[in-house]
Design goal:
single chain; 98 residues; mainly alpha
Length: 98
């Protein structure tokens, strides 16, 4: 999750001057997690993000680069949680709003 990276990288304090380094580190973390599943059990990788730019947008930039490289692979699908649940006939553990 982007917030976890934010806290790990900068202690939860904005450090936009280090955005480039944080982007690279986050991208490497996303790729390592992906490659672990891609070459192993093929468990769907979940990436959680907030609608905010932390550390100069470092985590959004890392996610964009990751998606551009991974989501175009022939045997990879990037979908929302809702699409995944609809396609697997699984129900969320908690229903919000009714």
């Amino acid at each position: 999750m982007d917030y976890n990276l934010y806290v790990r990288h900068s202690g939860g304090k904005e450090a936009p001057d280090q955005a480039g380094a944080f982007t690279d580190r986050a991208y490497q973390a996303f790729m390592a997690a992906f490659e672990r599943e891609y070459g192993g059990g093929r468990v769907p990788l979940q990436v959680g993000f907030h609608f905010t730019l932390m550390n100069g947008g470092a985590y959004w930039k890392a996610l964009e680069r990751f998606a551009e490289e991974v989501c175009v692979r022939d045997d990879v699908r990037c979908v929302s949680y809702r699409e995944y649940l609809d396609e697997t006939d699984l129900e969320p553990l908690v229903r919000v709003g009714g």
